[in-house]
Amino acid sequence: MLGSARASFPSSWPLNAARNITRSRARPCSGHLGLRAQHTPPKAWVPTPYERIVCLNGPVDESLSASIVAQLLFLEADAPEKPINLYINTPGGAVTAGLAIYDTMTYITSPVTTICVGQAASMGSLLLCAGAAKKRFCLPHSSIMVHQPSGGYFGQASDIAIHAKEILRVREQLNGIYKRHLTKPHSLEEIERMMERDKFMGAEEALEFGIVDEILTRRNKDEEAEGQ
């Protein structure tokens, strides 16, 4: 057999070359190896841009925001008329990083469908709410949390006053975004009261409040075919 046969080589051959040839002869070759490799599932699956799926997983920071923005812009350039599916599972994060994603979602011509899987808290709830009209979904056991922005600063009293004024401006801006996208009519005063403290909602509450349009329990084959 190949595995047990001893090969002889001229003495002038380098030792490493002889060893490599011996190993290559002993290695089994089969036309089925490629088929087995194709049927082996990958350890971790990452959606490609060509599937028009973007996954927002983990805290929203500058790095994640840059990646999401780049994917959205690429997909719009590839097919502006086709929808993009943004799957959201995040505890929230930096307001500026989240608003970069929000502005890109509203800037591009491709409609962005948002789907909450797991949780959409803080900035995640705003991005979920900001999807295309009638295309904002959550799964049955999703958790959605809204609250006002938080932050801290120390230094001179005048600098603290400047930062306090800025965070109040951001709070008003975020409340206006919620008011613009909620499916149910709410005044700014009602939204401000709602955001005063952390408010957790299940799927039904989020639907009633107007953050999502529908709770998904099973994929709609017609919509899937339409998206393709």
Explain how this protein is built.
Strands 1, 2, 3, 4, 5, 6 and 7 form a 7-stranded mixed sheet that branches. It is built from 9 helices and 7 strands; from the N terminus they run H-H-E-H-E-H-E-H-E-E-H-H-E-H-E-H. The longest helix has 25 residues, at 157-181. 45% of the residues lie in helices and 15% in strands. Strand 3 (112-121), helix 5 and strand 4 form a beta-alpha-beta unit. Mean pLDDT is 81; it is low at 1-7 and 17-44. With 228 residues, it is an alpha/beta fold.
Layout of secondary structure:
Elements: H1 15-26, H2 33-39, E1 53-57, H3 62-78, E2 84-90, H4 95-107, E3 112-121, H5 123-129, E4 136-138, E5 143-146, H6 157-181, H7 188-194, E6 199-201, H8 203-209, E7 214-215, H9 221-227
Parallel strand pairs: 1-2, 2-3, 3-4, 3-5, 4-7
Antiparallel strand pairs: 5-6
Helix pairs in contact: 3-4, 4-5
Structural class: alpha/beta
Q: Count the strands?
A: 7
User: What is Rg?
Assistant: 27 Å
Number of helices: 9
The run of helices and strands is HHEHEHEHEEHHEHEH
Mean of residue pLDDT values:
81
Strand-residue proportion: 5-15%
Sheet bearing the most strands, described?
Answer: 7 strands, mixed
Give the overall shape: globular
- Tell me the span between the first and last alpha carbons: 53 Å
Query: What helical percentage do the residues reach?
Result: 40-55%
Task: Detail the poorly predicted runs.
Answer: 1-7, 17-44
Short description:
The chain is an alpha/beta fold. The chain is built from nine helices and seven strands, in the order ααβαβαβαββααβαβα.
Descriptive labels:
228 residues; alpha/beta; 7-stranded mixed beta sheet; 7 strands; globular; disordered N terminus
